[in-house]
Amino acid sequence: LRNHGGKVMWSDETKMERFGHNSTKRVWRKKNDEYHPKNTIPTVKHGGGSIMLWGCFSAHGTGRLHCIKERMTGAIDILEENLLDSARELRLGRRFAFQQDNDPKHKAKSTMEWLKKKKKKHINVFEWPSQNPDLNPIENLWKDLKIAIHKRTVCHPHETCVCASVNEHFPN
Predict the structure, then answer these.
(1) pLDDT tens across 76-104, in order?
(2) pLDDT tens-place string over residues 23-35
(3) Where does the Tc1-like transposase DDE domain start and stop, copy by copy (predicted)?
(4) Residue 137's CB: how many other CB atoms inside 10 A?
(5) Which residues contact 85 (CB under 8 A, 6 or more apart)?
(6) How far, in Å, CA of 161 to CA of 43, rounded?
């Protein structure tokens, strides 16, 4: 990290629940009041209860946030649409270091070849230990973002509305 002079881009994906947190929620209620709407949490059957987000940041601020609309099998589309533009907006210059975890879609042959081509130009990709999400500082950003989103009342549990709400809290 020292060799990069603060020119490091951290990235990751996260799952954002549309209807509350990924944990049990408890409420104080009166007897026979268990089905009152204020005491219930909506659920979604057969998927659709969450959205996936990709984001990045550096010492200079947050980069772009991307709402992943379909099942993610590789990372090239997201990187092509967001990585270099984020680096430019954050003024990381022509050479910077990039971190992503060892998720299989990041290690896919096509993704690695894409990054290898970019490395020749200006991106140095960090080697990252397997299964070590707590080493990535973006996890703290995701936690703060989820808390901020769940504190406010989301207009409607529709994907575009949640993405708009998330973008308000993820300035770039």
Answers:
(1) 888 989 998 999 999 998 889 998 887 87
(2) 556 778 888 888 8
(3) 8-152
(4) 13
(5) 63, 64
(6) 17
Structure tokens belonging to residue 98: 């990039």
DSSP-derived pairing of the beta strands 8-17 and 50-58 = antiparallel
Residue appearing with tokens 């308000």:
168
* Interaxial angle between packed helices 159-169 and 138-151, expressed in degrees from 0 to 180 and rounded to the nearest 10: 120
Determine the straight-line distance between the first and last CA of the chain, rounded to whole angstroms: 23
Torsion of CA 91, 83, 170, 26, to 10 degrees: -150
- The answer to whether residue 171 scores a pLDDT higher than 80 is no
Q: Give phi and psi for 158, each to the nearest 5.
A: -90, 145
Tell me the whole-structure pTM to 2 decimals: 0.73
Tell me the pLDDT band of 56, cut-offs 50, 70 and 90: very high
Report DSSP letters for the chain, one per residue: -GGGTT-EEEEEEEEEESSS-SS-------TT-TTSGGG-----SSS-SEEEEEEEEETTEEEEEEEE-S--S-SHHHHHHHHHHHHHHTT--S-EEEE----HHHHSHHHHHHHHHHHHHTEEEPP--TT-GGG-THHHHHHHHHHHHHHSPPS-S-HHHHHHHHHHHS--
